[in-house]
User: Fold this.
Amino acid sequence: MLGTWKRNLKEFDLDINGSSVRVATDDNPIQNRPYIVFLHDSLGCISLWKDLPIQLGEMTNCNLLVYDRIGYGKSDPFASKTRNNSYLEDEADYLIKILQKLNIKKVILFGHSDGGSIALITASRYPSYILGVISEGAHVFVEEITIEGILKAKEIFKTTKLKQILEKYHGYKTEDIFNAWVDTWLSQNFRNWNIEYLLPSIKCPVLVLQGEFDEYGTEKQVDAIANAVSGKSIKKMIPNAKHTPHKEKPEIIMEDISNFINSFLP
Assistant:
């Protein structure tokens, strides 16, 4: 993504329940403006967002908060190599602890993939904090295409340089985060995971984005979200994009998200 941005984000470590979480936020927050919180996918971290947060912050005049979930990037490693089936729900509770620690009271959530699911769960459970949600490639239930996509990713991890690429961002934790993602979603116990029951509790505006050719989910995910939330919802399928439209079609995504945010902020 091209551009010269005026904003700078400072990175520092935050102690949450005895674990170190790497966060990045504005050097000089804009007074009386909310924060956009960026929630990365199952293999992501702060660095992999590139300059997208800063660009979106400038387009919306919002403050920014980006962080590495525990296990990822520069945050502490997982406490356990196995996950329970409620790991996404647990991450919503963890996010609120981060907001409380930083004394941030009003946010807009932008989540990709796992991050999108976490955003929806958080908006359902903690509505007083959330002004709006952008979900990109989020899941609210498990589909066969998701399983197939993860099986292909597992083979790619074994046969290509994907592991070495991810090690640039996650270091020695790379295998743990990859295996946690694969093992959880491929387990028989996770097949019944479903958060559709939470969606009616979401009363804020929601922008639901997904690539037309997403290899991990069908349009059924988008319809389930857009049709069930109680707040205003906007559904947008991104043409000629797969699971990561913000990298594949950044101009479209930036315009859609900035227009959405500016539509409900003063």
The CA atoms of residues 59 and 89 lie 30 Å apart. The chain has a mean pLDDT of 96.
